[in-house]
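Dear U.,

For the methods section draft, I wanted the exact inputs and outputs in one place so we can describe them consistently. I've listed the two proteins in the order they'll appear in the manuscript figures. Please don't edit the token lines directly; just add comments below if something needs changing.

First protein:
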Amino acid sequence: MQSNCHLEPEVWRATVTVVPPAKAATDNAGLELCFDAISHGRLLFASSSDARYAFEEKVLILYADFRPILEEFNAAVIERIQP
């Protein structure tokens, strides 16, 4: 599985499902998980504010591009499952 974003150990956040801070585990995090971590997670540790801000900016820009596609997909799924 190819990662959409890379969480560095110094900028990962706790989410409802705890994501281990090991780099190998966080490399597989998808864009939605990265966005959810930024939006709803709690920062546990950041060795560099610049690295954290760069990561958050990258994820927010990618998610802003991805969100309209996600909304269109969700609407199509809902339309298909409704009788």
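Second protein (the one for the lower panel):
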Amino acid sequence: MARSSPFSARVRSASPRRSSLLRLERAKEFGATELVNAKSNDIVQAIRDLTHGEGAHKTLDCSSAPDARAAAVRAVRSWGTACYVGERGQVTLDVSPDILRRQVTIVGSWTFSKQGQAECAEFVADHNVDVEKLFTHRWKLEQAEEAYKLFDTQTTGKAVILPS
């Protein structure tokens, strides 16, 4: 989990099972000011500590890991929103304390709308985000199998497969 200063998001969290030191270091490179290794810390408590016990306004789970999905819901404040974008997977929640009594909204998002893409591009331009720095690996099409095996380890940044 990391807190970021130059961007609008205050808290970034990683799956407790898939968090890696490399990803925490990459978060730091992109401006995170506080890092918490989710493998060795209670991510929900860490977020609550960083938000004076309130919880995050919004959380985002990209992992599909059951523990991370539950943590995304439990780490939001009352009236907060948890968003899932990772494909597949399950989550088990205790509906009353996790959702109903705190008025939590859960949303899923599979892709950006045209408006969302435009807003993202505008954010990148306005904040001079070095998009090239996001990509840690570039592969040729004939290396796709090798690329997917590495990407499945959840230890890399973003990767791109280019035509040969």
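Candidate sentences for the figure legend, describing the second protein: The chain has two domains: 2-114, 130-164. The chain is about 30% helix and 25% strand.

Thanks,
Y.
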